Amino acid sequence: MERAADVQLPSAMPVSRLLLVLVGFPAVSTALSLLLLDRRIFAATGLEFFTVFWLIIIGWYALQIALLSRVLAVSGWRWRDIGFGLDARRTLWLVGAYLVVAFVLLALVELALASAGLDAGKLRALSDLSNLTPRTTVDRLVFIAMGLVAGLCEEFVYRGFAIRALQSRGWNRWLAVLAAAVPFVFQHGLKSIDQFWWFLGWGLVFGAIFVWCRRLPVTIAIHWLVILSALLGVLAALR
Q1: pLDDT band at 41 (very low <50, low <70, confident <90, very high)
Q2: Does any domain span residue 185?
């Protein structure tokens, strides 16, 4: 049996906690995505469906991070054990860098849309079951917040925790990468129906990068860039 990516791992992660995270989290995410099937469900709020839906998803991502923190604590693991060794100050710098890039990109998108004279109605066709392109400025601000917690949560759970926890139970690192990529697909709920290979491919890429560099901040930064690139989908309406 090979060493666990040449890192010192704590005791083996209990199977029950592995299943809680790698089966339970995607299952809840898929259940929440069923809200996409009837977008009138939030009509009483007076808010755009996109806004309410992504606020719910933001809350779920934050809860996943909190639950993962608890799982690590009761298992005798630390954040460093899953590849995230940044202290509070450096974590704030990492988040700050994301926000700077996100708001610069948002400003460019807003300027482009304003110059073209497009409104939310003309962008409506961009949003369907698998494509939740943010149509309004408020939607895009919510999307930026969602991207922040999604990048953190998914890398914590499906790279750092999943791969290291599976390795702690004797799994080969590349088999662990493959196994971790599957629940990552279903973390995206109904979007995984027609984007299965897209999410699986990125899951494998992120997993391989994590195994190679052993540091979650690297995969988090790349993940954030991939998410923010979706803002550019709004500009498709300019064609």
Answers
A1: confident
A2: yes
> Does residue 192 register a pLDDT over 50?
yes
Q: Is residue 65 part of a domain?
A: yes
Range of the domain at 27: 15-238
Q: What distance in Å separates the CA atoms of residue 232 and residue 146, rounded to the nearest whole number?
A: 16
Interacting residues of 155 by C-beta distance below 8 A, sequence separation 6+? 206, 210, 216, 219, 220, 223
- Between CA 66 and CA 12 the distance in angstroms is 21
- The radius of gyration of the chain's CA atoms, rounded to the nearest angstrom, is 19
- Cα distance between residue 173 and residue 164, in whole Å: 8
Domain count of the fold of the chain: 1
Task: Round to whole Å and give the CA distance between 53 and 189.
Answer: 13
C-alpha pair distances (Å), 165 with each of 63, 133, 158, 202, 215: 20, 34, 10, 20, 15
Total-model pTM = 0.90
Residue 9 lies in a domain: no
Q: At 13, phi and psi to the nearest 5?
A: -70, 125
